[in-house]
Amino acid sequence: MSLLRRLGAVALAAGVVLPSAAYGLSLDEAIALALKSNPGLAQSQAQADAAAARLRQAKAGRAPTVALTGEVGTGETDLGGFFGFGRANVDPRAAAIEVRQPIFTGGAISASVTRAREGQDAALAQLGGTRALLSALVAEAYVAVLSARELLALHEAQVVQMQEVARQADLRFTAGETPKSDLSQAQARLAEANAGLARARGEVARSRARFVSVVATDPEALEPLPAAPSTPASLDEALSEALRSNAMLKSAQASARAADAGVRYAQAGRAPSIALAASASSVRDKFFPGYHAHDTTVSVQGSWTLFSGGAISARVSEAKADARSAHAAVEAAEASVREAVIGAWSDLTTTRAMLVAAEDQSVAAVSALESVRHEVRVGQKPALDLLDAHREALAAQSAVVAARGGALTAAYRLQALLHGA
Questions:
Q1: Cβ-based neighbours of 389, under 8 Å, separated by 6 or more
Q2: Distance between CA atoms of 249 and 329, rounded to whole angstroms?
Q3: Which residues pair with 100 in a beta bridge?
Q4: Residue 372 DSSP SS3
Q5: 374 CB-near residues (< 8 Å, 6+ apart)
Q6: pTM for the model
Q7: How far apart are the first and last CA of the chain?
Q8: How far apart are CA 230 and CA 253, in angstroms?
Q9: Which of 23, 131, 214, 313 has the fewest CB atoms within 10 Å, i.e. the most exposed one?
Q10: CA distance 167 to 174
Q11: CA gyration radius for the chain?
Q12: Which of 398, 400, 388 shows the shortest CA–CA distance to 192?
């Protein structure tokens, strides 16, 4: 018997029909909406864009630079008769252009590019991890809404049944067929059912608020729960895949490689740098009226810092310390991923086993409820047994709803750990 048929059987046993659902928004559509509007994801995307810009900036260090300077002015000069010049108006103009091409930087440019590229990889991994985590959060919110609504319908049906049981108990007590204790027990169970209904209504409101917070839209009409995403066949496979693809771990590894490149960049400060430069300039009226000069130069320029007061050594030490910290973070991330995957796998296998057991329990509870209802009707059992049977049937149904939703959310959490990047 399918799960929906089992739930239908329980509903019929309770004497009610569950309300038909209006289908609209699917889980995949809800995830897509969240990916468009989530501020945390937008922040991660901005960080990835900034990392891409830093990579372009680092690569630009390999290209030549062209600088153009110029000056235009007007004024008056008075040389006091020197060189035969007296007072005169001048219009000084000057222009210069320089092209500079790095030839050797001690590895600084290559290290800078590597550091920026690994930084971009780290940012992209974080972005993928944020997407995967958001998908899992949406799935959890989606499940919570549907489960809360289903439980509300079950509690509403329970209240209806308890009202009828209490009414029948009152009639029998008035007719002198049953003691007052039967009526009191029925009224107590009705109050219990009303309390459960109030809790179910509150859970519906909380689940709706959570859904709006995560997805940024009202869950007015949701499609039924989809099949759970595929998962590895064993824990060993899950761990192997996570250690290969987990977003947090890939980000930590890329950050460690970027830190290693940072060490090489700092060490390049001890090496000389060489560049090829070419310049051309033109000057008019710079010093004397009618003066003009033109200049063209091609040169090889070099610099080498021989003493920096320990600044370069301090930068190298700082970079090496950052690298040690980054590699330690990789080890911590690997341990954290292992722990999270084992926990997620345990949750998944547990909820799947609980779902099978809850479905079996629900079928048995429905059958028991029907039997007890008949036995109470013919006087073979007291009314209290019927009240207990209703309670057990509701508990079994609630367990099915919780286990079904728990299995789906556990699968999405595991997926977020395996395929974050």
A1: 365, 368, 369, 372, 373
A2: 9
A3: 65, 277
A4: helix
A5: none
A6: 0.79
A7: 39
A8: 27
A9: 23
A10: 11
A11: 38
A12: 388
- The Cα 142–Cα 159 span in angstroms is 26
Query: What single letter denotes the amino acid at residue 386?
Result: L
Provide the β-strand partners of residue 94: 71, 283
Site of tokens 């000056």 = 71
Pairing of strands 292-303, 65-72: unpaired
H or E segment to which residue 158 belongs: helix 108-174
Angle 222-223-226 (CA atoms, 0-180°, nearest 5)?
130
Contact predicate 6/359, CB 8 Å: yes
Residue type, 140: E
Give the DSSP letter of residue 15.
T
Using an 8 Å Cβ cutoff, are 414 and 238 in contact? yes
Closest CA to 119 of 322, 258, 264, 248: 258
Question: What span, in angstroms and rounded, lies between the C-alpha atoms of 201 and 28?
Answer: 26
118 by DSSP, 3-state: which?
A: helix
8 A C-beta contact, residue 189 and residue 387: yes
For residue 165, the SS3 value is helix
Asked whether the beta carbons of 39 and 110 are under 8 A apart, the reply is: no
Residue (of 135, 125, 104, 132) closest to 302 by Cα position: 104
Tens place of pLDDT for every residue, the chain, 421 residues?
A: 333 333 343 333 333 333 434 458 999 999 999 999 899 999 999 999 999 999 999 999 999 999 999 988 877 776 666 665 667 777 888 899 999 999 999 999 999 999 999 999 999 999 999 999 999 999 999 999 999 999 999 999 989 988 988 888 888 888 887 788 888 888 898 899 999 999 999 999 999 999 999 999 999 889 998 888 889 999 999 999 999 999 999 999 999 999 999 999 999 999 999 999 999 998 887 666 677 888 999 999 999 999 889 999 999 999 999 999 999 999 999 999 999 999 999 999 999 999 999 889 889 988 888 888 887 777 777 777 777 788 888 888 998 999 999 999 999 999 999 975 4
